[in-house]
């Protein structure tokens, strides 16, 4: 495996930090970027010299394949700062492995592990001041890779750019969500790329989500494309249902993202001796459970939102409002995960990674 | 509707044409671009001043949504030159309508018709020398639009760029193709974006196509994601099967592109009094027809390739070689379409458009 050390990253520091221009109390998600960015180009069959430079626009041919064929994948991860000022990541090796799994499905060359971790930690140490202390504060980290080769034939590119950019973040969703169960539109096909963080998976959801927004729903819970009878995921989140005292979530598949927050929720629930079932979840059973009062909670799980409680859902014109609970599993599990992320509690599964 | 005239396009001419550096006899598809490009930015809810400038790299934020969420659609069209030196397009209004149909599905604002046609014809007249006379020569024209807004939240962008770039082309496929019928991987889902020329549809095909390439097949004929029993399209082409003297092709749907060459083939076949059936085509019937000798031809139809005859297919380990025919429908229809495109024959359906 390729080995690099920090002094092998070509570094150009920004002359002056922009951090004092930023209102950290009023951040809009994903619009403010830190002082530096990491990048590495794939040319002539090899990843070249990795670089860290001031955050800035890039120059790219209009014929670059990413604009035409969507050959691009990404990851979402977060950095946290504890009360001592140490910075932490959460299960970063899972993000590393997943970006390469996504890349392989889109015929993008895999990125070397040493480059990923050395690039990530060097960048985060340079921009450490942008990670603010306190639960609810984090640095959203976006590794991504895209096809740069200037040639518009419909085949995998020969050239790519891998980048990491970082954006300080507050909580992604502030209010409880209202969601629509999909009945017509679909997110992914059997044998498709739904399990990958492929760029095209996201744009495909925007139009149906706009329609849902107009009806007063912020997100769609996607169902299987074939029958629309089974609840799969929410596009930026996996989905959990609590029926009585059992948490239920769909198994991962080639249609459903293997979410890192999803599997952390399952583990934390088991650590709390909660009953968890990973199995197909039908629209029918969730509507029946909502009608008879056994459906206690629905929540989304994802890196950006961590845990997003859901207040209501609609399907087939039927609207179900979920109760307010004293003993919410969502809040209990969210608190547990946030405490691990912010180095406030024991980390018995070794999920924290010191930057 | 917004109206513009040529003198409202902001034009910067290249100082010196690159045309004399180009070997027109040895063009690789999609790698050489003409002297100029057209672009128009969508900002503040409006398409701004359209521009034509020398073909050059663009500058874009790494946080532009196209890199992360694949919010991008495109068209493929061709310009032809007749013996008098006049330049022609083929059914360009269909490309215009389709790019906006694709855009709508990806929550991208529609592009105004006048901007499209005025931009296209002005650009083509400026770069007319790049369209070479003779059947087999064409100028491949690539209109495309992508999300430029620098914000990595997973929602539709507020800013976009529409562009047209042009690339001189020889025939796209030179030899007859060998194809694999898909059994495991899929191109699109019911309720998805398969009908749109969405960027992400293409990257999703690269890995399965790489696997097919390794088995000696250049393309995959995609089947329905649910059962893999019905033949749909080839990703860059629609597909026609000739069984005895009947041409059969799948109906368009939300999974299958409404190809302009596809519908031209259907019309030309009818003009030649050939029997055409637009209906679901099963893998089973095509294998049986191949086995009993009634399958005469398979060919692809698309803008880049026009008509691509197929020499053989594999499904489930069974390989079928197709016969060489004296009276190939594929070649007959291809010649008919090329003659219309190059202004060599009557254009009774009004498909030619003078630039």
Tell me briefly what this model is.
Two copies of one chain form a homodimer. The first copy, chain A, has 355 residues and is an alpha+beta fold.
3D architecture notes:
The structure is a homodimer of 355-residue chains. Chain A has helices spanning 65-69, 92-105, 113-126, 199-214, 260-271, 283-292, 329-341; strands at residues 10-11, 36-43, 46-47, 51-54, 58-60, 72-74, 77-81, 87-90, 138-147, 160-169, 177-181, 219-221, 230-231, 238-243, 246-249, 275-278, 281-282, 295-302, 306-315, 318-321, 352-354. Chain A is built from 7 helices and 21 strands. Helices cover 24% and strands 29% of the residues of chain A. Chain A is α+β, with helices and mostly antiparallel strands and 355 residues long. In chain A, the strands form 3 sheets. In chain A, strands 1, 2, 3, 4, 6, 7, 8, 9, 10 and 21 form a 10-stranded mixed beta sheet that branches. In chain A, strands 11, 12, 14, 15, 16, 18, 19 and 20 form an 8-stranded mixed beta sheet that branches. Chain A folds into 2 domains: 6-169, Aminotransferase class 4, branched-chain amino acid transferase, N-terminal domain (D-amino Acid Aminotransferase, Chain A, domain 1), CATH 3.30.470.10; 177-341, D-amino Acid Aminotransferase, subunit A, domain 2 (D-amino Acid Aminotransferase, Chain A, domain 2, Alpha-Beta Barrel), CATH 3.20.10. At the A-B interface, β5, α1, β9, β10 and α4 of A face β5, α1, β9, β10 and α4 of B. Chains A, B: Keywords: Amino-acid biosynthesis, Aminotransferase, Branched-chain amino acid biosynthesis, Pyridoxal phosphate, Transferase. Chains A, B: It catalyses: L-leucine + 2-oxoglutarate = 4-methyl-2-oxopentanoate + L-glutamate; L-isoleucine + 2-oxoglutarate = (S)-3-methyl-2-oxopentanoate + L-glutamate; L-valine + 2-oxoglutarate = 3-methyl-2-oxobutanoate + L-glutamate. Chains A, B: GO terms for molecular function: branched-chain-amino-acid transaminase activity. Chains A, B: The modification N6-(pyridoxal phosphate)lysine is found at residue 197. Chains A, B: Belongs to the class-IV pyridoxal-phosphate-dependent aminotransferase family.
């Amino acid at each position: 495996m390729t080995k690099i050390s920090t002094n092998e990253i070509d570094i150009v520091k920004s002359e002056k930090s922009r951090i004092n221009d930023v209102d950290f109390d009023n951040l809009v998600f994903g619009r403010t970027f830190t002082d530096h960015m990491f990048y590495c180009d794939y040319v002539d069959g090899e990843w070249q010299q990795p670089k860290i430079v001031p955050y800035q626009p890039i120059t790219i041919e209009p014929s670059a394949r990413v604009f035409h064929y969507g050959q691009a994948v990404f990851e979402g991860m977060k950095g946290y700062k504890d009360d001592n000022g140490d910075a932490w990541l959460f299960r970063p090796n899972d993000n590393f492995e997943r970006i390469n799994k996504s890349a392989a499905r889109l015929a993008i060359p895999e990125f070397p592990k040493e480059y990923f971790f050395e690039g990530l930690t060097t960048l985060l140490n340079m921009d450490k001041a942008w990670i603010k202390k306190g639960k609810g504060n984090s640095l959203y980290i976006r590794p991504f890779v895209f096809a740069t080769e200037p040639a518009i034939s419909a085949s995998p590119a020969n050239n790519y750019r891998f980048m990491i950019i970082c954006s300080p973040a507050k909580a992604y969703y502030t209010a409880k969500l209202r969601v629509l169960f999909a009945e017509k539109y679909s997110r992914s096909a059997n044998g498709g790329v739904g399990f990958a963080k492929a760029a095209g998976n996201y744009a495909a959801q925007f139009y149906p989500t706009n329609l849902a927004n107009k009806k007063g729903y912020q997100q769609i819970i996607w169902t299987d494309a074939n029958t629309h009878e089974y609840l799969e995921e929410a596009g930026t989140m996996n989905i959990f249902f609590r029926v009585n005292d059992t948490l239920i979530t769909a198994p991962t598949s080639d249609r459903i993202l293997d979410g890192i927050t999803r599997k952390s929720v399952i583990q934390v629930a088991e650590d709390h001796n909660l009953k968890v079932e990973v199995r197909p979840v039908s629209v029918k059973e969730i509507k029946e459970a909502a009608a008879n009062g056994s459906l206690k909670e629905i929540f989304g799980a994802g890196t950006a939102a961590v845990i997003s409680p859901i207040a209501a859902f609609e399907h087939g014109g039927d609207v179900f409002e979920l109760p307010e609970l004293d003993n919410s599993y969502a809040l209990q599990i969210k608190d547990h995960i946030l405490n691990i992320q912010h180095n406030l509690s024991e980390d018995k599964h070794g999920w924290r990674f010191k930057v």
